[in-house]
Inverse folding.
């Protein structure tokens, strides 16, 4: 009984706190500068120049001095969506972090500790790349996941500039840099323009988008 | 099936367009002159029916702000109305005729509080009604009476506007509680050149506010512009009422990077100007305005490219 109720209760509390927290969502366009994957033959291939559609969704809630932020960003491009290839390139970047903010006048600086990373997937249906007219699709299915402890800091100035940098213990493995900005003296519903750089050992993406916050 | 879907889409589109809320102007009674009228007893006792119709019509009209029925304290009213004569002549062609011909005349006097006649109003009207009900008696009589009264009241209201009567009753002054916000609005994705000032205000009290205005002044006190606020809605809050007003005014002629004082004013029950809120607004520098326009272009570009890329992805799939 307890084994079923307790997780359910936890889940309910989490959902409740998320619904009551400030949420934000965004969308944009991106570009893959580097994506290393393993071929069907086992050799390493580097892919670049794939356009991306990005969407992100997140929550931010404050509990006493600690701020909890959770968001997921997905980058996606599927060239053969309808006839079978569900996705060709998919990056999911989940992230959850505790922030401890320090505010001085209009500057806010916070150090953060979190958990997250990047999940990469490349999928092509076998029938597709064997057919003649789909020869441009390189024959490889690939799945990779780098999710571990994240360190980082954020910096914001007034309400028109927000920066966040997150990286793993080994900085070269995965790092994510996000910059949100808008002009001064804007209404609260005006979206931020977001610039996003995500780098790592096997992947580099750039994205430009809009982020709407409550 | 396709036609049905098209029809549904069209209906939704049309009904959506029809229900776009417009700006609602304040009700006319907000503009009325603050008179309190009294209704005196009629000269002939048989005219009491007309008097009660008169009371009913004045009470529903926007002629006065208050109405007292006879017998009333004359110090509380600004003027009195009295029915002096009411005659109706009803003619019927035959016993089973369908036509009712009526001719009526009504004389109403406008008296001051000392019962001195200021003006007399006389109206005549005829009515020619057909009734298929054999048992009805004078079917158009109430209509005739009403039209006589409303015609006289139209003339009374014209005379009141011309100042034949001065408001003399005891006034209950009140300071209304107000909640206002004045904010400057700059370009966003739906309006590229927007430079507006948005004013919303809520006034709480028992007497309706008259002529709520927004005034923008320079630092030396000279007025830049004065704009009337639109009435938006009325709400009951405990025993008081809450009137909300708003307006969005284009300020494109205002210089950048300067400060202005604003005042929100209305007229009280004596038509004197009362300031209920003041403050300061500061326009942004011109460069920031251009930057905001650039930001709007950037937002539009991102949205367009996102949509374009999405369409391209879909086209690749097919």
């Amino acid at each position: 009984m307890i084994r079923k109720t307790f997780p359910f209760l936890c889940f309910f509390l989490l959902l409740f706190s998320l619904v009551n927290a400030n949420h934000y969502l965004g969308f944009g366009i991106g570009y893959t500068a580097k994506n290393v994957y393993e071929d069907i033959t086992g050799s390493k291939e580097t892919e670049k120049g794939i356009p991306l559609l990005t969407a992100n969704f997140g929550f931010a809630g404050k509990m006493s001095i600690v701020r909890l932020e959770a968001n997921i960003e997905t980058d996606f491009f599927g060239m053969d969506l309808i006839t079978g290839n569900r996705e060709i390139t998919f990056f999911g970047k989940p992230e959850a972090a505790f922030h401890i903010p320090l505010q001085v006048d209009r500057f806010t600086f916070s150090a953060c500790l979190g958990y997250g990373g990047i999940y990469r997937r490349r999928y092509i249906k076998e029938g597709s790349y064997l057919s003649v007219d789909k020869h441009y699709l390189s024959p490889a299915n690939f799945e990779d996941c780098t999710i571990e402890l994240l360190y980082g800091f954020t910096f914001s100035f007034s309400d028109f500039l927000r920066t966040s940098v997150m990286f793993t213990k080994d900085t070269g493995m995965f790092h994510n840099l996000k910059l949100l900005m808008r002009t001064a003296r804007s209404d609260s519903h005006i979206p931020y323009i977001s610039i996003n750089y995500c780098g790592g050992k096997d992947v580099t993406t750039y994205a430009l988008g809009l982020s709407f916050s409550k | 099936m396709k036609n049905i879907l098209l029809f549904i889409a069209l209906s939704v589109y049309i009904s959506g367009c029809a229900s776009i809320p417009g700006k609602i102007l304040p009700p006319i009674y907000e503009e009325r002159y603050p008179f309190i009228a009294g209704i005196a007893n009629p000269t002939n006792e048989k005219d009491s029916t007309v008097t009660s119709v008169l009371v009913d019509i004045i009470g529903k009209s926007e002629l006065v702000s208050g109405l007292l029925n006879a017998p009333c304290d004359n110090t509380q009213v600004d003027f009195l109305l009295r029915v002096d004569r009411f005659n109706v002549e009803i003619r019927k062609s035959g016993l089973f005729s369908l036509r009712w011909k009526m001719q009526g005349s009504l004389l109403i006097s406008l008296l001051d509080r000392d019962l001195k006649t200021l003006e007399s109003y006389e109206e005549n009207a005829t009515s020619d009604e057909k009734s298929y009900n054999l048992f009805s008696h004078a079917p158009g009589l109430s209509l005739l009476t009403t039209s006589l009264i409303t015609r006289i009241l139209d003339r009374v209201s014209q005379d009141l506007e011309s100042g034949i009567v001065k408001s003399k009753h005891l006034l209950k002054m009140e300071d209304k509680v107000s909640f206002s916000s004045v904010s400057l609005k700059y370009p966003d994705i739906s309006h590229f050149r927007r430079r507006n000032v948005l004013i919303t205000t809520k006034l709480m009290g028992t007497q309706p506010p008259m002529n709520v205005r927004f005034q923008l002044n320079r630092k030396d006190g000279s007025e830049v512009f004065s704009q009337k606020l639109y009435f938006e809605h009325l709400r009951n809050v405990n025993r008081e009422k809450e009137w909300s007003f708003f307006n969005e005014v284009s300020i494109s002629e205002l210089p950048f990077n300067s400060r202005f004082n604003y005042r929100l004013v209305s007229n009280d029950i004596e038509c004197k100007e009362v300031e209920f809120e003041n403050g300061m607004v500061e326009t942004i520098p011109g460069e920031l305005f251009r930057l905001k326009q650039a930001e709007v272009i950037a937002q539009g570009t991102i949205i367009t490219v996102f949509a374009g890329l999405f369409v391209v992805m879909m086209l690749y799939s097919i």
DSSP finds four helices and 13 strands in chain B. Confidence is low (pLDDT under 50) at residues 20-31 of chain B. Chain B touches chain A at residues 185-186, 188, 284, 288, 291-292, 295, 298-299, 302-303, 305-306, 309-310, 313-314, 316-318 (CB under 8 Å). The two ends of chain B are 24 Å apart (CA to CA).
